Amino acid sequence: MAHIVGAVTTSHVPAIGKAIAKGLQNEPYWKPFFDGFINVREWLKDARPDVVVVLYNDHGLNFFLDKMPTFSVGAAPTYTNADEGWGIPTIPAFTGEQDLSWHLIEHLVEQEFDLTTCQEMLVDHAFTLPMALLWPEQNWPVKVVPVCINTVQFPVPSARRCWKLGEQIGQAVRAWKSDARVMFLGTGGLSHQLEGERAGFINKAFDLAFMDSLTTNPQWATQWNSAELVEKAGTQGIELLMWLATRAALGNGAREVHRNYHIPISNTASGVMVLEPAAQ
Ligand code: DHB
Ligand code: FE
User: Fold this and answer.
1) Angle of helix 226-233 versus helix 204-216 axis, rounded to 10
2) Which residues does the chain have with pLDDT short of 70?
3) Which residue of the set 12, 59, 103, 192 is catalytic?
4) Measured from the CB, is residue 14 less than 6 Å from ligand 1?
């Protein structure tokens, strides 16, 4: 059976791609953000994942507003990035773990999740930049399975539904007949709002309480509906749903190995956490 090594949850912001391309990691603006990933990479050396299941939201590169699945899973042999209009360089292609993709799809459909299955899929900054923060050489020593949750076009799935999705992803991975070491990577959030009257909105108290809840009371955020979560975290802060689903995939107990929280990166309160299943 596959072995779950843990999870990384992190914000994703296109400006990170420009900072990487320009080598700005040690500039005063960027250092508190990039330094937050040093311990994550140290942890990765021991965790040694073979496969990463990436939970993220596509922002218009693969799905646009005209066709927006609530949940979708990639089952492609390779995944490429493309110009999203942010002016960030594209990144080397990723190799898909197709056996796990189909195992996950079959399990999730059996468990009554009506998925969109993607045998071709472009991956956007929400996928590529967290991967580049974890493996800066961009030589990708892992295979990947992308899982997209719509947080771009409302109505978005509820926190409760995302928790259940994550639980089933975890169960599917644990039941996968493979020796592989599997890691979850959940990207999005934390609090931010890019447009409207509250553009620039950040809620540090809520973000920190949410990060704490992932180990102390992991279903805490499921008490709110999507409108309430938007009120607390901002229109794009609802991307915290990816953190929630990722935490659910780890199973009953989890412990925090590392965290960093820094305001702002672009318009976003940026956070990163490493979590391990409690049983380890
Ligand atoms: C920003 C944040 C996001 O989550 C995103 O997808 C795009 C931009 C930002 O803060 O600039
Ligand atoms: Fe985003």
Assistant:
1) 120
2) 279-280
3) 192
4) yes
